[in-house]
């Protein structure tokens, strides 16, 4: 409650001062709700791009004043967090995988600032909330597509790092494929990088040489390899079908808007507290969706996938969550 009072009082005081300054000319205004984001990668990277897109949308709608830093090294992350907190940002958003301790230390030192961070761990009172891209549900559906359409019964999967956030999506995809095709096998590799398209492409080629005829493109570079070899791919997090026409069968899409809008509303309204915002990435909240290219996917497969999607939305089917490292069959 102490944290809530502080942030609410800070916003109220700023608004009161602004109203007083402009009262003489008949204008009443308030301080914009200020949000800063810190990214360890370029905003073009697929995971980061979804957060950046949601914050830009909020800014375009007039809800916030948005600033950000990209390509921030892990060694600089704590410094940048502190600088934004000192500048009076009301909400700071980012991803702290690999630097959890440093980020939580900063939040503890700035109790009157709200923090919303992508994290593998839980929230910490009073002001450190977490989120993640829980798009395991649409990932399961894309697995159904791949399992139905593979002819070799071998699917290749190239991931970045074997962390829970990646593992659960890959397992959901594999479960979906196995539900419609018990004979399917998987080749799995992690390139230990969030952004290394040449390495991902090389890994994909090796899997194709081993018989994979559909690729799960968790990383950039995989779909490029699929295009060169004339096989199909499954997208993840963003829709890249426009960049790879005739190649992407389906994609599990992450929409960060539900999470961002909820956090902004809570912080601006004085109700922000340490919480896990992960649920807002679920399909029921509009945080996840399926994109299906019906020009490439047979109608019977598309119908089965849509029926399962409706079961998920109706609460009649629950996709299993498995954070363990997936391995090749």
How far apart the termini lie comes to 51 Å
Helix content: 40-55%
Order of helices and strands: HEHEHEHEEHEHEHEHEEHEH
**Treating each run of at least 4 consecutive H or I residues as one helix, how many helices?**
10
Stated plainly, the CATH topology of the largest domain is called: Rossmann fold
What's the story with the biggest beta sheet? Answer: 6 strands, mixed
- The structural domain count equals 2
The CATH architecture of the largest domain can be given as 3-Layer(aba) Sandwich
Strand order in space, largest sheet: 7-6-8-9-10-11
Question: Can you tell me the overall shape?
Answer: globular
What portion of residues belong to β-strands?
15-25%
Q: What would you call the structural class?
A: alpha/beta
Q: What's the CATH superfamily of the largest domain, by name?
A: Response regulator
Question: Short summary of the structure?
Answer:
The protein is an alpha/beta fold and 329 residues long. Helices cover 42% and strands 18% of the residues.
